[in-house]
Amino acid sequence: MGRITLDKVTKSFGEVQVIPPLDLSIEEGEFVVFVGPSGCGKSTLLRLIAGLEDTTSGHIRIDGEDATDLPPAKRRLAMVFQSYALYPHMTVRKNIAFPMRMAKLDKAEQDRRVEEAARVLNLTDYLDRRPGQLSGGQRQRVAIGRAIVREPAAFLFDEPLSNLDAALRVGMRLEISELHERLKTTMIYVTHDQVEAMTMADKIVVLQAGEIEQVGSPLDLYRTPRNRFVAGFIGSPK
Ligand code: ADP
Ligand code: MG
C-alpha cells in the first residue's frame, strides 16, 4: 500500500501553468521529500496528489487505481496541515476521533484506534486535555493522530513544522522519522528546508518553477547534483 505514480501531470491556474508535465513514482513505504524554494509548486503538487486540486491534465494512480478523478475522501491519503486545525473545545480524544465520528465508524473501533494512535505518539496521558493545555509539539502530534486513525495508504505533510521554534522543530523532525520507522507507511513531506530534506528523506524530489530538477537519495544529490541549482540548494561542494 502507498504506491503513488504521477503520469504527465500538469496544473494551470487560469493561463498560468505552474506544473509543466511531470512524471514521478513513489514506492510503497518510502519517505519522500519535496524540496524547493517558495513558490516552486510543492504545495500544489501535494494538493494534486491529495485531490484538493484538480489536475489540468495527466493521471495520478494510487496502488494501481486511477485516482485522478477521485475526491480526497476516496483516496485513502491523510494530509497533515501546517496549521494544526484542532478543535479548541474538544478533548484530545475527541479531536483524534473526529474523522472516525464523521465516517460513523463503530464506537469500539474508534476507541481502539485512538488508544493505538495515542500510544504511538506518546499522548496517552493527554487524551482528556484540550488543545489549549498542550505544547506546540503535542498539538502537532494530535494533528498527526487524527491522520493515523484513518489508516491511510500515505501521509502527506505540508511544512508541518514551520509554526514551531527551532529547538522544537528538531525534536518533531526526529519524531516524524521515528513514526515512519514504526508505521512503515508512505510519507510525502513538503519543506523548503534543505536540512529537513537531507535528514528525513529516503528520496528527495528537488523542484524549481514546477519542474523536477532531480530525484535521488540525499547521498546521490550531495555527491552527484545534476546542475548548479541542485548543488546550490543542497549545499553540495560542487
Ligand atoms: P510552494 O508551496 O512551493 O511555495 P505553491 O504550490 O504554493 O508553491 O505555488 C506555486 C505557484 O502557483 C505560485 O506561483 C503560486 O502563486 C501559484 N498558485 C498556487 N495556488 C494558486 C491558486 N489557487 N491560484 C493561482 N495561483 C496559485
Ligand atoms: Mg507551500
From TrEMBL:
<keyword id="KW-0547">Nucleotide-binding</keyword>
<dbReference type="GO" id="GO:0015423">
    <property type="term" value="F:ABC-type maltose transporter activity"/>
</dbReference>
<feature type="domain" description="ABC transporter">
    <location>
        <begin position="4"/>
        <end position="234"/>
    </location>
</feature>
<dbReference type="GO" id="GO:1990060">
    <property type="term" value="C:maltose transport complex"/>
</dbReference>
<protein>
    <submittedName>
        <fullName>Sorbitol ABC transporter ATP-binding protein /mannitol ABC transporter ATP-binding protein</fullName>
    </submittedName>
</protein>
<dbReference type="GO" id="GO:0055052">
    <property type="term" value="C:ATP-binding cassette (ABC) transporter complex, substrate-binding subunit-containing"/>
</dbReference>
<comment type="similarity">
    <text>Belongs to the ABC transporter superfamily.</text>
</comment>
<dbReference type="GO" id="GO:0005524">
    <property type="term" value="F:ATP binding"/>
</dbReference>
<keyword id="KW-0813">Transport</keyword>
<keyword id="KW-0067">ATP-binding</keyword>
<dbReference type="GO" id="GO:0016887">
    <property type="term" value="F:ATP hydrolysis activity"/>
</dbReference>
